[in-house]
Amino acid sequence: MEKISLLKTFFGHDGFRTGQEAMVDAILSGRDVLGVMPTGAGKSVCYQLPALMLPGITLVVSPLISLMKDQVGSLLQSGVPAAYINSSLSQEEYFDVVDRARHGTYKLLYVAPERLLTDGFLNLAKDMRISLLAVDEAHCVSQWGQDFRPSYLQIPEFIRQLDKRPVLGAFTATATRQVKEDIARLLLLEDPLQITTGFDRPNLFFRVEKPKNKSAWLLSFLEERPGESGIVYCSTRKLVEAVSQQLNMRGIPAARYHAGLPDDERIRNQEDFVNDTARVMVATNAFGMGIDKSNVSFVVHYNMPKDIESYYQEAGRAGRDGAGAQCVLLFAPGDVTTAKFLILNSQDNESLTEEEQELIRRRDLQRLGQMTAYCRTHLCLRAHLMRYFGEECPSECGNCGSCTSGLESRDITVEAQKILSAVARAERKYRRGVGVNSIILMLSGSRERRVSQLGLDKLPTYGIMKDVDRRLIRDYMDFLIQEDYLRTEGDEYPVVRLTGSAKGVLSGGEQVMYFYRKEKEAGKAPAASIQTGGPLFEELRALRRQLAQEAKIPPYMIFSNAALEDMARRRPRSMGEFLKVSGVGEVKAEKYGGTFLRKLREWEEKEQEGQTA
Known about the structure:
Layout: H1 3-11, H2 20-28, E1 33-36, H3 45-53, E2 57-61, H4 65-77, E3 82-85, H5 91-102, E4 108-111, H6 119-127, E5 130-135, H7 155-161, E6 167-172, H8 177-186, E7 193-196, E8 204-209, H9 214-223, E9 230-233, H10 237-249, E10 254-257, H11 263-274, E11 280-283, E12 298-301, H12 308-315, E13 325-330, H13 334-344, H14 354-376, H15 381-388, H16 401-405, E14 407-411, H17 413-429, H18 436-443, H19 449-453, H20 470-482, E15 486-489, E16 495-498, H21 502-506, E17 513-517, H22 534-551, H23 561-570, H24 575-578, H25 586-612
Parallel strand pairs: 1-6, 1-7, 2-4, 2-5, 3-4, 5-6, 8-13, 9-11, 9-12, 10-11, 12-13
Antiparallel strand pairs: 14-17, 15-16
Helix pairs in contact: 1-3, 2-3, 13-14, 18-20, 22-23, 22-25
């Protein structure tokens, strides 16, 4: 069968998205590929479609059990024979999968990298005809990636053990230039077709909030979205416990997820979230890559992550089905301290030398600086993210918290002179320098012990901004750092210093204009970014939930939110029209088409009755 026909039959799409067809064609011609595509852009189709067209089996290396289960479950719903081998299988199930794999039952077999070099799996691999080896979440092979897993380094050795080298495909959503180079080098890709389709996700609305009370802000945000499902990421297990408990006490069904929970509870909580029993998942980054749920309408980061790669990957859990979604980061200066503590106290990786460990720590602190800059910028948030990944983009996107809130300006020359003068005097007193927080305490006239211990209360600049809110002084200092009047140096205990640009301001010859964004109401998103599917969409969603409960599968495996929205717009009356709905393939149409068409007919009849009445 021709590739476009297969694409429609099994995946419900009439055509390829950017980059997909080139990668599919390269794999089918026997060429290795390296694909960097944003979450929701269709990476999996790039190896799942060739798997249907190539002889034998496609082996997919995937890092997490939950991710394998989601991918295989979705494939089976679409009519594609697939399975996985991991520790969640009973001995009987394991032998059944192995036997079926040997007999060529499956087109795709998912496996964890840790299993590749075991005797049992190597024996199975040599009995199968492996045409394609697809490496999912390929950034895990790089020690410069945010999810480095040493087990990924076993992949080349596994390939060497095979009688015939298969075509290799490596796929990831987040990779800087360094990480892409590492993937190609460490996986020994041969002249790969490299395609980076761009990191932008236009359906995601990014914003940073600095609420005085994060808990109250989150409750307000969730209460405005009673029908939406989403994730709240917290930096510590303790916070996960506190936030999830608070949400449940307020009647918001929330599950929790962190590494300290028993395995059975983590699995149960994830299933509750995936099946829409719990509409909010409160989690640490342990939730990570293991979620393939398409109808996530928002991701809120209760704390700032340690790096932009992690943030973009976690925020990217939202809007996988292409529907509009919110990605909100709640920022407080204390988040920087917490993130720095986690970096400096992270467990050493025994496979790395002391020098490599130290280099990684330094890299992590640099990444933290980029993440902090994202939280403090008044410029376009999407542009900040795209440029971090090396992608050119307009300076304003028109669809993020910065771009939609309106830019205002204020002359802060006097305030800037006070701050720069304070830093200059502190530098003269202490050649090693003084930290930002100490400068803020001095300017505000704080009576804290460390101010007097450092003798900062004896300087002429002590208390000269006592009538200014400390948070605003912090914003001014962040702005002066961003505009290169100040700079910070040092990793573990950074200090602040003047730059050459400060002289013009201190002498009175240069004006400083402070640009800031208008304040927004707590919790409120721009009206255009809040999804309103309408009453027919809600009816279709209720039907999907009922069918999912009967089949004991997650609702999104039947149809995505985007497919239901398209269905509500098109209102198909026949099976032919139903097949034109985006995301509806022949297999799913045969399974569910009659039921949804009946619901649509009932809806039209009700509408007509209402009009005649």
